[in-house]
UniProtKB/TrEMBL annotation:
Residues 1-29, 654-678 are annotated as: Disordered. Residues 69-257 form the YVC1 N-terminal linker helical domain. InterPro entries: LHD_YVC1, TRP_calcium_channel, YVC1_C. Residues 1-12, 668-678 have a biased composition (Low complexity). This is Calcium channel YVC1. Keywords: Membrane, Transmembrane, Transmembrane helix.
Length: 678
């Protein structure tokens, strides 16, 4: 695998040692204050030994519950922001020193990984449009920006204070571990939750991750931060593994729940079916499945175009239909996995939906042909219209990080929305001209003009292809006919096209101006969607349909353990060649990396042969104290650093121990934080 693999000793807490185990500090019968003071003790994975900070309650390792933290963040942010601000204004030195940094110091707690989740959850709430708060919408957007900025700063603190593999494990728990927003909430709050049927997941129901909320709220500043990208890259390559959380599974198998951990291929089984949900491997397998679908489609359409060979056409068409049905089932399960709001962020989601619509239309027509017509092929021409969609989808899949495709995805949403508005508005012109033709039009016009003919004339005017509609305008009505058609020509060719070009240009310029963030955001979406919870994704098409028809009824007959064993055995049997190749490849990558680092690195044994050895020797160790004293006399840092930032580094000791400056930085704003006391 690309990237380093750590030993499984750096593993998160298991199911027996639940990090969310609650310690009730009061009587729950009152359902008032006691549940809000319930604390949970978190595992010390990646703890750096720093003080808990101003947000920690008394008691080592004690942090406030998720429910209380969410409301605490909301109160602090609403107190700090009571006017509209942009991101640049919030990043200004004065706002950063008086508002942002004090809030970060107050909220940051090395032992509380739920702070980032609570900040992003508040951003989602502030961005939610509410008609009764339309006057406050601008202020709420500023508060949402502040929440994202605070989440980015807090996540950076975690990244700086927890280096190494333990720090990667902690960051992964912050971003991809599930949190319950109603953790220790009062009973009146729990009663308001939607009471839909939730699949049993062993205590992990109704949980969401910070990364999912960041994708939903389009927190691109948070996702593009180095700390978040480290986790996204590790999850994408399979270095960080976990059991994802989803809303509904087609084929649920939740007998075991694997916490967030670091993967070691040498200690894993050779046929490890969990590697099928690694995003990097899953994207490669998905591309293979789509290539098979495209090949079967080409064979079917090509035999239809040749004609005559009806037997061969039926064979290829049957194979294509079976495989395409399994592929459509996988796409539908992908939408249900995390919801349409997350799935729509995928670059090629609109292409997949378009193909599903075309395939469904083809299927309906084909069923009618088989039931009521003999040897008729009216459905295959419908299937031929899917060729532009499938070929375009290949380009999107091969180049998911191309900024042109990213911009095209965003512009397609604006184009589709504006096109529907135009069709809805311009339908009135068709109805008006049709009514004119029926009431006051000439007899020759009434004999041959229908709504389809009028629509065709207006489309030709819109695209500038033909002027028949303008020539026949007086036949509708001597005055009203030309007035309606000329008005349509002005609105369609001038106003609508100008607005369309302006909107698409604005969207494209925004994406190009923030190219790096857009690419990293799409990579995060691709990574998050690649980790699947539903067992149906472990079966390639068309075996997923067979698994759904056979294993799903079996789940209600056998015990959960027996179903899990049967499911794992079936997955390993069907995917045995792929799993064997993955296992051997990962082990070879680890051996090759260690061989290069230990045996085939000549600079390790002959460092003097390196052309940059002198430069490396200068910076290989800190300067001695006498040199630091000379440097301090030459350049006093309090003269270089502004007064409001002098506390960052004030003495030569900070050169030898940078963490002392970081600790002073966190404690220096205690006076400025008082205005945010709850």
């Amino acid at each position: 695998m690309g990237g380093d693999f750590a030993d499984t000793s750096s593993r998160a807490s298991s199911d027996d040692d639940d990090p969310e185990a609650a310690l009730n500090l009061g009587d729950d019968d009152n359902n008032n204050v006691a549940p809000l003071l319930r604390l949970r003790r978190l595992p010390p994975a990646g703890s750096s030994g720093h003080d808990a900070g101003p947000s920690a309650l008394p008691g080592e390792g004690a942090v406030i519950s998720v429910y209380v933290t969410m409301h605490r963040v909301r109160r602090l942010v609403m107190t700090a922001i009571d006017d509209t601000y942009t991101l640049d204004e919030l990043r200004a030195p004065q706002m950063d020193h008086q508002v942002v940094r004090p809030l970060v110091d107050r909220l940051y707690n090395p032992r509380d990984p739920a702070v980032v989740y609570c900040l992003v959850a508040n951003r989602v709430q502030f961005l939610r449009p509410r008609s009764r708060e339309s006057v406050q919408q601008g202020i709420n957007e500023s508060r949402a920006i502040l929440c994202e900025l605070l989440a980015t700063r807090v996540l950076r603190r975690f990244h700086e204070d927890h280096p190494g593999h333990s720090g990667l494990l902690l960051l992964a728990n912050i971003l991809v571990s599930g949190f319950d927003p109603c953790d220790t909430a009062p009973e009146i709050v729990r009663a308001r939750r939607p009471q839909w049927a939730v699949q049993d997941r062993g205590g992990h129901e109704r949980k969401l991750t910070a990364l999912e909320l960041a994708i939903i709220s389009e927190s691109k500043m948070l996702i593009k931060s180095p700390a978040c990208q480290v986790v996204v890259d590790a999850v994408y390559k399979g270095v960080v593994v976990y059991t994802p959380l989803s809303f509904v599974d087609f084929l649920p198998d939740h007998y075991t729940h694997h916490p967030v951990s670091l993967y070691e291929p040498r200690h894993a089984p050779i046929l490890n079916h969990h590697r099928l949900i690694v995003p990097q491997l899953r994207n490669a397998i998905g591309l293979l499945h789509f290539a098979i679908l495209l090949g079967l489609y080409m064979l079917t359409v090509a035999h239809y175009g040749l004609g005559g060979d009806m037997a061969g056409l039926r064979v290829y068409e049957s194979i294509f239909n079976v495989f395409a049905a399994g592929w459509v089932l996988e796409q539908f399960a992908d939408i249900v996995e995390h919801g349409w709001e997350v799935h729509a962020q995928n670059l090629w989601s609109f292409l997949d939906v378009t193909f599903v619509v075309i395939y469904a239309s083809y299927g309906l027509v084909r069923i009618v042909e088989l039931l009521f017509m003999d040897d008729a092929y009216y459905a295959l021409p419908v299937l031929c219209t899917a060729a532009p969609v499938l070929l375009t989808r290949i380009a999107f899949t091969l180049m998911p990080n191309n900024i042109v495709f990213i911009a095209l995805h965003a512009m397609m949403r604006d184009f589709t929305r504006l096109t529907f508005i135009a069709i809805w508005c311009f339908a009135g012109f068709v109805m008006g001209l049709l009514f004119l033709a029926r009431t006051s039009g000439e007899d020759s016009l009434n004999a041959g003009v229908t709504w389809a003919t009028i629509t065709k004339w207006l489309l030709w005017i819109w695209f500038g292809l033909d002027g028949t509609g303008i020539e026949r305008a007086a036949d509708f009505h001597l005055l009203m006919g030309p007035m309606l058609i000329i008005t349509f020509a002005f609105l369609g060719n001038t106003l609508f096209l100008t607005i369309l070009v302006a909107i698409l240009t604005n969207t494209f310029s925004k994406i190009i101006a923030n190219e790096a963030a857009e690419v990293q955001f799409r990579r995060a979406v691709l990574t998050f969607q690649g980790v699947k919870s539903d067992a149906i994704f472990s079966y390639p098409p068309p075996f997923n349909m067979a698994a759904l028809l056979v294993l799903l009824p079996l789940k209600f007959v056998v015990s959960p353990l027996a179903f899990h064993q049967i499911n794992v055995a079936a997955i390993r049997t069907i995917n045995a060649p792929i799993l064997l190749l993955i296992g051997l490849w990962e082990r070879r990558k680890v051996w090759a990396r260690r061989s290069r680092s230990s045996l085939f690195n000549p600079w390790r044994y002959f460092p003097s042969l390196s052309p940059h050895a002198d430069i490396q020797a200068v910076f290989s160790s800190e300067p001695p104290p006498d040199v630091i004293d000379v440097l301090e006399k030459m350049d006093a840092l309090h003269d270089v650093v502004p007064a409001d930032r002098a506390f960052i580094m004030q003495s030569p000791k900070d050169l030898r121990d940078p963490t002392s400056a970081v600790r002073r930085r966190r404690n220096s704003n205690s006076s400025s934080v008082r205005r945010f006391d709850a």
